Amino acid sequence: MLHTIATGLAVLGAVGICYVGVSYLLAPQKTAAGFGLPAWPTGEAAAFLPVKGVRDLVFGLAVVALLVAGLPQAVGWLFLVGAITPLGDMLIVLRHKGSKALAYGMHGSTAVVVAVTGALLLLG
């Protein structure tokens, strides 16, 4: 049962982060507004925003690939290591005086859920 719940969380996480990644690729300025930082690059510097989209999309697709390959333990390790990304995002938002609500509520809680999912996959 634990394995099924953990796998379900991993699939939801993969779909969710793929959606975020595609959103950053298709509408980077609009999507970036919800990240929590007070300002985003504009003009030529805005070309940096899709970098986040690629990063997120690749993480989600890696999860899907490992699940399809039948490697839930590898997904567990990927999630444990991958929890550093939303933790880092939270710290970046806080350091740059962005929204504390989004820093803790979105990025911090995501880091916890990703880490717990990883641990559940390794235990299950």
Explain how this protein is built:
- The protein is mainly α and 124 residues long.
- It has six helices and no strands.
- It has helices spanning 2-26, 28-32, 49-68, 72-82, 84-95, 100-123.
- Helix 1 packs antiparallel against helix 3 (49-68) and helix 4 packs antiparallel against helix 6 (100-123).
- The longest helix has 25 residues, at 2-26.
Mean pLDDT score:
94
Runs in which pLDDT lies below 50 for 5 or more consecutive residues are none
Q: Domains counted in the coordinates: how many?
A: 1
User: In this structure, how is the largest beta sheet organized?
Assistant: none
Give the SSE order as H and E letters.
HHHHHH
What form results from the Cα inertia axes?
Answer: globular
Query: Roughly how many Å apart are the termini?
Result: 8 Å
Number of DSSP-assigned strands: 0
Helix content estimate: over 70%
Helical region count?
6
Question: What is the strand content?
Answer: under 5%
Class computed from helices, strands and strand pairing: mainly alpha
Protein name: DUF4267 domain-containing protein
Transmembrane segments: 7-27, 57-80, 101-123
Pfam family, one: DUF4267
Organism: Solihabitans fulvus
